[in-house]
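Deliverable D2.4 — example input (structure tokens):
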């Protein structure tokens, strides 16, 4: 009971796929990944070099220069919400709002994972656009769930006023940022703010609840700027006079320290992070060294067929994610369309729940199509999810699902009840959960496997993800069902009517296919980030280390007394 035995998983791809197949699959990943990479690069550039020059002329660093100076040298930054507002135009602006004008990311600072929230000062001077508040709040929620320090790099000219109705009011409007500030403080999550320039109205409230506030000489925080104050022009007052560091550091006490420039402020913020307790990651490794997978994670680019109806071996995916490609499968003899088990990421324990693909042999039931949820599989992942929650083990959900089993037998077996049980489990879990949408994320299966409506800390998509209730062609059939026969063929002999139905079905299918594009999902904030499959291992290292960094805020059990041991004993076949 005291030990959990890990076993090798996966094999060289050459054992299952020919060189030609691997090349075809790799070319497919390149084809779908490059356009996403271009969009990410466009977003990161903000409004371009002209606006970078304007920032430099003011003696300031750009937002990305600040982040690069703040993070540990040589470490990666894991950005979330990059493509929010992609393709959206706004009244009153000739330019789009790349990334909603704010950068949110995970980054290591002084050896600790942090969440950085930074106004993009090359985009309308860091203004808040529609979805800017929601993006900031989403990052604050990630930090709250993982108890990660939050660093605010504030350079904000306030709401983009022509679109204020879409960002001011409502449950997730700009004011909700300040409630998140308060909840982070109430839960003891450190918040450190650097104020580097404009900090007007709501932008002025955001740093105030922080534990430390640093202001540069070019920064000011005001409820209303000089332009709105009667007499300011005749008195020749500027916003800096009204709310600069002379006022807020030495008079009002709304800021803690006054520093000359951006580099000094960033060095001071790093020093504050160094004063925090060190990461608990090494403790929770239980003496195990972090190790890469035995199979190169970049090989995931060669695994997936361009035809999403073609299956693949989920063990090959896991083998390129977990340390040393070692895995312990739990409840292997039941619900075979699902695989659940434990492995390590960066030396840290993690639970995995994933869909198998292709035809799966279920004992006593025969062949079943993978990528769907049946009674036994639902019960299995419910139990495993509860066990991980009881033991404090983070869970990674690897989704590639077309939905629940359907039909008379499924209803007689009570799949609605079993599915509700799973949804209850995932809705009440307290252990950190992370969801990866590999390919299909369809129907209620997307919900049941901890899709975004069920509050995973982070949900990642890949460039091949298709997130929707159903595929475009299937939805078109459902929409025009009354016009079709039992074989789903158009049931009319009238040429004009037939043509109208064909055109309507084609338009419906095309629209749904466009909506399923992961870029559109990211733009709407229906997923947190799009990640190439070859980079999933690096992302999981960030997320799993973040889940284990802070001690004392959630239940954890040492591996000797895990509920998983009991589950295996009770469900094992007697010898």
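Example output (designed residues):
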């Amino acid at each position: 009971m005291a030990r959990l035995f890990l076993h090798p998983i996966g094999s060289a791809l050459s054992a299952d796929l020919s060189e030609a197949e691997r090349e075809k699959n790799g070319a497919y990943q390149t084809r779908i990944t490059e356009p996403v990479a271009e969009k990410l690069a466009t977003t990161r550039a903000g409004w371009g070099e002209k606006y970078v020059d304007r920032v430099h002329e003011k003696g300031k660093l750009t937002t990305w220069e600040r982040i690069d100076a703040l993070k540990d040298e040589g470490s990666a930054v894991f950005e979330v919400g990059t493509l929010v507002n992609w393709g959206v135009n706004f009244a009153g602006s000739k330019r789009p709002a790349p990334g909603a004008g704010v950068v949110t990311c995970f980054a290591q600072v002084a050896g600790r994972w942090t969440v950085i929230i930074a106004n993009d000062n090359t985009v309308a001077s860091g203004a808040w656009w529609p979805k800017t508040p929601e993006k900031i709040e989403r990052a604050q929620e990630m930090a709250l769930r993982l108890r990660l320090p939050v660093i605010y790099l504030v350079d904000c000219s306030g709401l983009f006023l022509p679109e204020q109705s879409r960002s001011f009011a409502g449950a997730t409007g700009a004011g909700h940022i300040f409630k998140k500030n308060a909840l982070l403080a109430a839960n003891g999550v450190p918040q450190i703010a650097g104020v580097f320039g404009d900090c007007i109205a709501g932008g002025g409230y955001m740093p105030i609840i922080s534990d430390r506030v640093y202001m540069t000489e070019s920064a000011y925080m005001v409820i209303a700027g000089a332009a709105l104050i009667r007499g300011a022009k005749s008195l020749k007052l500027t916003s800096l006079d009204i709310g600069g560091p002379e006022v807020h550091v030495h008079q009002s006490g709304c800021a803690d320290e006054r520093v000359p420039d951006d580099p000094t402020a960033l060095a001071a913020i790093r020093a504050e992070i160094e004063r925090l307790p060190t990461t608990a990651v090494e403790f929770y490794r239980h003496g195990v060294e972090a190790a890469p997978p035995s199979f190169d994670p970049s090989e995931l680019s060669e695994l997936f067929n361009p035809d999403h109806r073609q299956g693949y071996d989920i063990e090959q995916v896991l083998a390129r994610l977990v340390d040393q490609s070692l895995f312990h499968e739990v409840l292997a003899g039941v619900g075979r369309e699902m695989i659940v088990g434990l492995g390590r990421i960066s030396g840290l324990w993690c639970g995995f729940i994933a869909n198998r693909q292709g035809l799966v042999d279920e004992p006593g039931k025969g062949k079943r199509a993978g990528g769907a949820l049946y009674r036994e599989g639902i019960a299995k992942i419910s139990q495993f999810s509860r066990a991980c929650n009881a033991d404090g083990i983070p869970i990674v959900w690897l989704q590639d699902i077309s939905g629940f089993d359907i039909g008379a037998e499924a209803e007689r077996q009570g799949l609605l009840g079993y599915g509700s049980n799973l949804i209850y489990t995932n809705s009440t879990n307290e252990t950190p959960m992370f969801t990866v949408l590999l390919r299909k994320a369809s129907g209620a299966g997307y919900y049941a496997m901890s899709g975004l409506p069920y509050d995973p800390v982070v949900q990642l998509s890949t460039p091949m993800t298709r997130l929707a209730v159903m595929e475009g062609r299937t939805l078109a059939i459902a929409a025009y069902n009354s016009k079709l026969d039992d074989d789903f063929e158009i049931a009319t002999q009238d040429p004009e009517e037939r043509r109208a139905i064909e055109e309507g079905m084609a338009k419906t299918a095309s629209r749904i296919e466009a909506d399923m594009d992961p870029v559109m999902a990211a733009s709407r904030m229906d997923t947190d980030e799009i990640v190439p499959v070859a980079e999933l291992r690096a992302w999981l290292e960030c997320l799993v280390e973040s889940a284990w960094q802070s001690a004392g805020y959630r239940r954890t059990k040492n591996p000797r007394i895990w509920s998983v041991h009991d589950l295996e004993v009770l469900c094992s076949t007697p010898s």
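The first strand starts at residue 7 and ends at 8.
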